[in-house]
Amino acid sequence: MNYSKIKSILNSIQSPIHSRIAPTPSGFLHKGNAFSFLLTWILVRKTGGTLTLRIDDIDKNRKRPEYLQDIFDTLHFLGIDWDKGAKNPQDFEANYSQHYFLEIYQKEIEILQHKNAVFECICSRSEILKRNNKNNYDGFCLKNNSTNTENQKKAAFRINTDFFDKKNILINDCQVNVSTEMPYFVIQKKDLLPAYQLVSLIDDYRMNINFIVRGKDLISSTAAQLFLAEILDKKTFLETTFLHHDLILDKEKNKISKSAGNKYNSFSVKFFRENGGTREDFLKEFCEWIHIEPKESLQQILNLL
């Protein structure tokens, strides 16, 4: 990411950005998360838009109270404010958890079923790896007409990525083939909970988000969600602008993963602030990432842009 690209984006925008930051309470937030949130905040505030805090807690098995608290602690440490969304962990649990919206997600799954765009899959991860020697699912249950109606709790729903002839999704001049990159991705897990790709799309749609900031590692996820939006006729989502920024790398040039935050090490913002790091120090690192002279406050960064 660099200053000139940010300026180019801002110069091209004709209306306010309505965006969101969407952390998951499955680990301590790391530097990569924080830089992405800062970039989103800057773009929203510079255009006079609105920022929503959406916490993706649909995966209840990985959610922990300490990780939820860390989201608010990190945002306050960074100086990021938001216009919509929970004010604190208690407000989130009482009013904003994605589990309050399961009926909305289920209706979309039923639409996909009605359109014959999904199929049941009873394969385990080990079975997929054994057949394929890789993580990408091979469409085994679709090709073998497998159904599991008598015991649906053991079946997942997958999207048929052969549903459309149009499989190449154009994202920022980049062509992504959904069938190759995200073949037959899951939209409902075996525990009957909706999966991330569906939930993220529906939440962005119902929140009227028109600009999404993500890392380059999520381009395939964006393609999957645009593919779903085509099937579900979510026109406003199809008009969303996506910015996929460069990733934060460690000393070995590997991307900082979510597990890096889980481990409470030097990559986590929690570790940084509890070991003497200040907001000013952190913002200076962010400035280096976007290739501008060091600034000590978000307002100074806004003024420069």
TrEMBL record:
GO CC, any one term: cytosol
GO MF terms, alphabetically ordered: ATP binding; glutamate-tRNA ligase activity
Keywords associated with the record: Aminoacyl-tRNA synthetase, ATP-binding, Ligase, Metal-binding, Nucleotide-binding, Protein biosynthesis, Zinc
Coiled-coil stretches: none
Record's keyword annotation contains Ligase: yes
Superkingdom of the source species: Bacteria
Domain named Glutamyl/glutaminyl-tRNA synthetase class Ib catalytic: residues: 17-281
Keyword Nucleotide-binding found: yes
UniProt GO BP: glutamyl-tRNA aminoacylation
InterPro entries, per the entry: Glu/Gln-tRNA-synth (IPR000924), Glu/Gln-tRNA-synth_Ib_cat-dom (IPR020058), GluQ/Sye (IPR049940), Rossmann-like_a/b/a_fold (IPR014729)
Membrane-spanning segments: none
Pfam families: tRNA-synt_1c (PF00749)
Family, per entry: Belongs to the class-I aminoacyl-tRNA synthetase family.
Protein name (record): Glutamyl-or glutaminyl-tRNA synthetase
Species, as recorded: Bernardetia litoralis (strain ATCC 23117 / DSM 6794 / NBRC 15988 / NCIMB 1366 / Fx l1 / Sio-4) (Flexibacter litoralis)
Record lineage: Bacteria, Pseudomonadati, Bacteroidota, Cytophagia, Cytophagales
